[in-house]
Amino acid sequence: MITVAEAGMLSRSDEEQLNWALENQRVIYSFNLKDFYQLHTTLLERGEFHAGIILAQPGYSVGEQMRRLLKLIAPKPA
């Protein structure tokens, strides 16, 4: 995991951050539902894909966010 600050992308636009994630095969985790949903839709309309965007709702503790992320990435039975 890497933060936008660690990637040197803190002051960059959402589109620039998503492009960086695309180039580096990273998943975006954001509370910015509206903008990243729109970027996702635009990419799909152009026939492009990304590694993933996880959109979270604000208000959950860090512990609850981690529990939800771990549940999301846990292997699922067939």
Can you tell me about this structure?
By secondary structure, this protein is mainly alpha-helical. The protein has one domain. The protein is built from three helices and two strands, in the order H-E-H-E-H. It has a two-stranded parallel ribbon with strand order 1-2. Helix 2 links the parallel strand 1 and strand 2. It is globular and about 30 Å long. The model has no long low-confidence stretch (mean pLDDT 91).
Would you summarize the structure shown here?
Helix content is 45%, strand content 8%. With 78 residues, the chain is mainly alpha-helical. The chain has a two-stranded parallel ribbon.
Number of domains: 1
The helix/strand class is mainly alpha
Mean pLDDT: 91
Strand content: 5-15%
Largest sheet: 2 strands, parallel
Written as H for each helix and E for each strand, in order along the chain, the element string is HEHEH
Q: Spans with pLDDT under 50 lasting ≥5 residues?
A: none
End-to-end CA span: 27 Å
Q: Order of strands in the sheet with the most strands? A: 1-2
Report the C-alpha radius of gyration, rounded: 13 Å
Percentage of residues in helical conformation: 40-55%
Shape field: globular
Total number of beta strands: 2
Q: How many distinct helices?
A: 3
Comma- or semicolon-separated keywords:
about 80 residues, mainly alpha
